[in-house]
Amino acid sequence: MRGCALLSVTLATASCSWLQSLDKDQTLDWSAEKLYSEARVALDDSNWTQAKDYYQKLEARYPFGQYAQQAQIELIYATWKDGDAPGAVQAADRFLQTYPNHANADYVMYLKALATLNETDSWFNKLAGEDLAERDANASREAFDIDGLGGKIVEQFYNEGILRDPTDIFTLEERNGGSGPTEDLFAVIDDKALHLERRDGWGKKSVENLFRAIRAKRRIELPRFIYALGIRQVGAATARLIARNYGSFRKFMTDMRNQDTERLLSIDGIGEAMAKDVVEFFKEEHNVSTVNRLLEEITVEDFVDNTNYNSPLSGKTVVFTGTLERMTRAEAKAKAQSLGAKVAGSVSAHTDYVIEGADAGSKAKKARELGVRILSEDEFLELIK
How many domains does the chain have? Predict the structure, then answer.
């Protein structure tokens, strides 16, 4: 009886405490938009605990709302930054199990890796002087990928003092011991030269191929360069919208340095939160200094709009899911965008087409539930030919 009485008191006390907490919870009547907005404010202020609380409430109250998936991703980030690496890993695993084909699945896996390894002083952090989790993990890899210069090699070169800044990549050839044509690169004997060809596992051919790949990256299209910066929330599609509206990188950077976001906010799909992230990137003097040094080594081409606005995809919203066989997802997205389509990462009632490849997941299922037209890869290619 005493145990029962004690249990009753405990339950009553807990219930009372819970009801009191509800009375004090000012977020009870908040909409999903309000919760997400306040969570972003807390996140931007580095108030990780508060951000986590808002994201968790958003996920619990509006699990199928328009902010739900993005909130889960940002909750992983906030949890990691709050020092709870195991919690971040668990949240990442839960997200990847639920949304294995999500457009930002790579970023979630990246956050999971950071939390797992607790590697806050990784090679890119050293090289670029940034918080890795603030960047799009795929941005530089996809937009500025250089064959023969992977993460392990960059880390090794950093530790040896060969690379200390992203611009050092473009001076490797000069510092190797020659600056002429490829066949003359190794003719100069200089004790201060790098002579990468003498390293174990390299050789002359490997070094020639690396320098050839680096030279090929000295010219880059404006959308790809903006994407390569890894500005938070700025993916490939958004980078293209920015490039189309600004035309040149100098104009874009000048406006952002002056915190002039009028043109940026006039772009459909870019809101206050994203604009703030872009401005914050260019407020960091280190970022601007690094970009300026990089611009001394490369040429960013002004935007040329070759979009075919008379195509069947013009003005349509398209989502890709699954594995394509005749082209990569990146190639398919680029082709769709060149034909005037808006490529989205998730399916909604506003989606016009879902292009379904092999092993398609939840996106295809949702498309069928919503009655969205689904095309096979062959049907997609037939539509755009």
Answer: 4
